Amino acid sequence: MSITEQIRTRLQEAFDPRELEVVDDSESHRGHAGYREGGESHFNVRIRAAAFKGQNRLARHRAVHAALGDIVPRIHALALDIDA
Amino acid sequence: MTDAKTRIDETVKAHDVVLYMKGTKEMPQCGFSSRVAGVLNYMGVDFADVNVLADEEIRQGIKDYSDWPTIPQLYVKGEFVGGCDIITEMTLSGELDTLFSENGVTFDKDAAEKIREANA
């Protein structure tokens, strides 16, 4: 399973989102630090889930980091757009 | 406390605003660090920058300190505020202005408004 699919699966299971978009944005970082051939180094995630209701920004990000677990240290960058 | 934690603790308490980043504020070495340093520079905020690429112990130590896996990391009055996404959102919503005002951090309000107008 690609990292993109792993991210999608874990977030789907953790938050049951009504909107979830996982984009491998690695190509736009070609030549920059952390880029690796074949991509799967830089990701943009947009997620909308009721589970985030009442949580501040830090808590939302921490919840996503926790759900992704060991994926986070394996990738170079993770841009998160989170809302309830 | 480990040595890295002690050093970080001292740094974030010695300066009102500290940015742990890749590279320096004059020469950022990562797009995400560059974006946050750029906002602070543009807003005329007096901040201390710590280049994690120059210190492996701090590079890992800062992640443990805040329990946050990515860099950059912004601290105001010793408190962790967030990384690139959060600082960007707070800049555009005006929450960063409020945070600075509440903590007595001087910044250029007109510059902050210009950033918001340009991203409206």
Automatic annotation (TrEMBL), chain A:
Organism: Cribrihabitans marinus
GO process terms (BP): iron-sulfur cluster assembly
InterPro entries xrefs: BolA, BolA-like_sf
Family label: Belongs to the BolA/IbaG family.
Designated name of the protein: BolA protein
From TrEMBL, chain B:
Binding site for [2Fe-2S] cluster: 30
UniProt protein name: Glutaredoxin
Domain of life: Bacteria
Pfam families (UniProt xref): Glutaredoxin
Residue span, Glutaredoxin domain: 17-81
Native species: Cribrihabitans marinus
InterPro entries associated with the record: Glutaredoxin, GRX_PICOT-like, Monothiol_GRX, Monothiol_GRX-rel, Thioredoxin-like_sf
Keyword vocabulary terms for this entry: 2Fe-2S, Iron, Iron-sulfur, Metal-binding, Redox-active center
NCBIfam families listed in its UniProt record: Grx4 family monothiol glutaredoxin
Family (UniProt): Belongs to the glutaredoxin family. Monothiol subfamily.
Gene Ontology MF, one: 2 iron, 2 sulfur cluster binding
